[in-house]
Structures are given as C-alpha cells and as structure tokens.
Protein: FAD dependent oxidoreductase
Amino acid sequence: MSPVLNRRHLLRLGGATLVVAGSTGIGLPALAANTVTADLVVYGATSAGIVAAVQMRRMGRTALILEPGQHVGGLTTGGLGYTDSGTSASIGGIAGEFYRRVHAKYHGNTVTPDSPMRLVFEPHVAAEVFDDLLAEHGVPVYLGVRLAQVVRAGNRITALTTDNGQTFAGPMFVDATYEGDLMAKAGVSYALGREANTVYGETINGVQLRTGHQFTRPVDPYVTPGVPASGLLPGISAAPVAPNGTGDGLIQAYNFRMCLTKAADRIPFPKPAGYDPADYELLLRYVQAGFTGPFFTTQGVGNGKTDSNNHGAFSTDFIGANYTYPTASPAVRESIVAEHRTYQQGLMWFLANDPRLPASIRTSTAAWGLAADEFTATGGWPPQLYVREARRMVSAYVVTERDCRGRVRVADSVGLASYTMDSHNCQRVVVDGVVKNEGDVQVGVPGPYPISYRAIVPTEAQCANLFVPVCLSASHIAYGSVRMEPVFMILAQSAATAAKLALDAGGPVQQVNVTALQARLRQDGQHLQWPPAIDGEIVVDNASASVTRAGTWLSSSHVGGYWGVDYEHDDNTGKGVNRLRFTPSLPAAGSYAVSLRWTADPNRASNVPVDVVHGGGVTTRTVDQRGSGGQWVPLGTYAFAAGTAGSVLIRTEGTDGYVVADAARFVPA
Structure:
C-alpha cells in the first residue's frame, strides 16, 4: 500500500489500516496503543460519521472514526453524486459547507457561509472534500476494523472491541453505519421491514401495490409461458400479495450507483463470473412485449459522467435479494454484496451484448461504460452498495408520515428533512397471471420538516451515551424521506454537538438541554425550522383562531409548499362571497413588512385581490397564484397600531381560478 494517500498517512496496526489525517489530532503514540481513547468514538466512515467527528473537533474535543470496510464517505463518495436534496436551501451547517466546498473544487471560489452550493458532483471530488475536512481537523480513521464486542457499564457504553483485538474507549459514541450495527450490539431496540399502516396511523406504509416503477405491459412470469406448473422466473415471489397497508419484514431494494461515461477511455461493462442469462429472461420478455427503455438513469454530474440509478420495472435494483442483509453476519453480507454486484454487472452486460435484444438497445447501452478515473481500486465499479434501509431504531420518538406531511411539528428539532417519501420496490409478485412489482412509493412532502432530537438517541434505559443519526427512529415510509445523505450529515453534526454538551454536563445524552443545543446549532448554521425564523415575525396560518371566513372554504394538502398542516381554497365557486381574513395580534405599533403565502398551480387564479388593512387605511394588491408558490410574497411595508386592528383580507370576486388562503406574515420593519 502506498505510504501517502491524499496527504493522509497510513499506519498498519494489528491488521487494520489507520488513516491519520493531519497532525493536529491524537498523537501517534496514543494511536499505537492497544487501547485508543477519544471523547467521541464514531463507528462508520460514512458522510455522517465524518461530519460527526469534524464537529466534535471543532468544539475542542477529540474524535476518531472506525470503519469496518475500506471505503470512506459512504454513498456520497460511492456514486451518489446527484444528491437527493429536496429543498436544498434547508441544508445548513457542515452539510451545507460540504456542498459549498464541492462548488469551490469546481470553480476555485472561496468558501463562505453565503457561497454557492453544488449538489451534483463526481465521486472523486466528494472524496477530496472529505479528505480535506479530515486532514484539517486531525481526525484519525481506522479502516478494516469490524465491531466485535460492545463493553458496557450499566446503561453506558465504555468501549468497543474490534475483530483485530483493539479496544476503542470513550465517553460518547455515534453509530454512523447504514446498518445500525453498533446500535444493535449495544442492545438498543430496532425495527426491520415495513410496519402496517395501523401501527402509527399512516396511509402509505406496509404493502403498496402501485403504479411507480411498474410493468406497463403484461409479462408472463412462468418459466414456460402460460404454464404455472413450470415454476416462476428468477426473482419472482410465489407468495400471494397481502392487502395494501399490511406490515411485513420486507426491505426495499438495493443497488449500486454507477458512474458512467461515453468518453473514449470508458471501461466496457464487464461480464461477471457467474453470469446467467436466465436472470434477465423477465426483462427480455418485457422488451419483446414492446418496452424500449430507458433501463437506467443517466443524470449528469459533470465532465460527461453520470450518477446512474434504477429506473423502471426491471433495472439496477436487485428486488427481493436483500431481506437478510440488515442482520446478516459479515461473511453473509459480503456474499449478498457480491450477488448484487454480479446481478447489476450482468444486467449491463446483457443490455449491451445479448443478441436477442434489438440492436438499438445494445448499441445505446454499449455507448456507455464505467468512468476510468473513478473507483480505480475496484475497476471503475463503485465499492459502496446502496443500503437504502436496514435497521431502524425504535426510541422515545418515532418519525412517521405525519411528520413528513407537516401534520405534527416537534419542538426539539435538530435538523430538517425535505425529500419525497420514497420507497423502492420490495418484491416482485404475480397478479392475475402477470408479473408486478410491489413496494414503490413516491409521495411528496409539503416542505422541510423538523426531526426530533429524541429520534436520534435511544431511550436512556437502553443506552445513555449513544447517538444514531443514520438508522434513526422512524417508520419505514418516513425513513424513505429522511434517508438522504444531506440529512444524515445534518443529524450527525447535531449528534456531535449534543455529545459535547452531554460531556460538559456530565449527564446522559437524553437529558441534554435542548434549548442550549438548538442555540449552538443555530450558531453553527443549522436550520431547525422552515421557513427559517425571522426575529419578531408573526405568522397567521389558515388554522389560526384569529382567521375569519365568509362563504365556503375547503381544506387541502394536495399541492406542496404550504405553511402548517394544510391550506384552504374557494373551490373556484362563490366568487365575491368567499372571503378569508388573517388578523395578527401585533405587540407594538410600528412599521411591519407584510407577506402572503399560497401554493401554486396552473388552475389557480392569476388575479386575486388582497386588501391590507393598516393604520393609514386599506391598500389593495393583486397577486398571481399560478406562480411563486411555497414562499413569502411581499405585499409591502405599512404602519400598524398595536393589537388586532390590522389584517390581510383575501377576496375572490372576478378571479379566474381557484383562490388559495394559506398564511400571512408580519415582520417588524
């Protein structure tokens, strides 16, 4: 192995590889001891693990990272370069800094809190940014050290022992793995698979036979078409499909996020050992039924490269092949990863070479190949399997669909999530004699929503000094929204901040002063509510008691971007009769900037009259609700008396579409 790797020095200790990033961290003599100590011991060199360690160093404490494999950066450096971000403006703290550093790598600009973010990038660029962060903060990273034992004293972890015989001790621990291995070995409760809708009062959990990433043409599932007795083609379950909303132990599918290119030096798709064309017979039949693609995504990430993901009914997701992965032994996991690699490499070989496919499909696929300058240690193939979901902690607070939809908003927020509730397919089944996929859910959220501090810590009785920012406490369908790399980084920074406060207080992590925690997080650039709070702002939501109405107004949450739990509309009827007034209670007389919020859609009215009642009289503005949705639209600055004399009135006379009433905001000017 080379003695130098991106300014990080490699040291072999007991069969492990240690990456010492820079010289400002723990000294080499301490690292060479059989027992290594740090204030924060992080298990998992994912993006979350790196951010947790960096934050602890920034707060003046020591930290180290243990990684059971050889890859640093998780999915962020493992091919997922087309970031699933939701509302990117809600990404703050070190996560936002990471994406600003990515932008700077491409453009050479100085990184400031206001510099641009770049959320689309090549894998090696993400790796360089993480290398920089580790080096600047002197964070040692141990590679190839797998957790063997958790040492406890009462309800606290005191040390971790790894399979090479080393011990890593400290007062605080973070499980940053995608699998939740430290959490499980520490005896923390967790869930696997999908809950029934009835468990948490949800609507899109459990079995979901829907239309997304579904076969759009009938395809026979039997080895001998039309003959059930001949058996099913590979990957198809013989189990009957349970009713929608039924819970089970199935896991959404995994794949690899490939970095592809059409460059002349591309690596042709390899034919893997163990390739079996029978594994793709179902896809062949789908093509013969008339499907022409696409078979995978080709989202560009820069310099002619892609982040290529699953797309459609039969693609890079190895549906049904990962059910045992979350709790499997290391050896079994390695075999599952190898099976996924063989399946996906075989799929790409099949699409590019099988003579039974139309020439157009073979030619268009073969025009792509693996990027020669990415993942050079593994022949251009990504080293990180996309473990979309494994164990999920069950703690004092479980994030559910209600959080995602904004129907509940926790007060102990330590970060925001905003991506669609997204579950990939969980099984391939037979319905009425044809093959169907089951499990795909893609349901949007109205906007960024807060994640409870209680969801990233176990209950105190189970463990008083552990944080779980990746396999956090969430239902299956809510985890489908939370499980994004920016969110993992956000929650990891919050976890490390809380760890420092718990150390200072000498108490369990569950008793950290959340107000103090939130104050420090805001100081470090985290966003804890959305839209971000403005000092002195007063928001009157449509659900506020001070709202008065005339005529008929209907509640809805169909179009995202609303404030609170819903918005109201006039049903495009009762024009001139339907009116709605937002009345604030202003604490002092003075000038206030007034804004209005709505959700936009082409069916909205473009000419909604809005009356601002203020100290100088009434000012009428006209707003176009076909655009500018999900944001505060200024109506002007006006003088108001203290109390409830001022208001904003939405009228409907003469309007040419649906009129929406969501919220009004008053900010001292």
Summary: The chain is about 20% helix and 25% strand. The CA atoms of residues 35 and 167 lie 5 Å apart. The chain has three domains: 4-191+450-523, 260-378, 538-668. Residues 330-353 form the longest helix (24 residues).
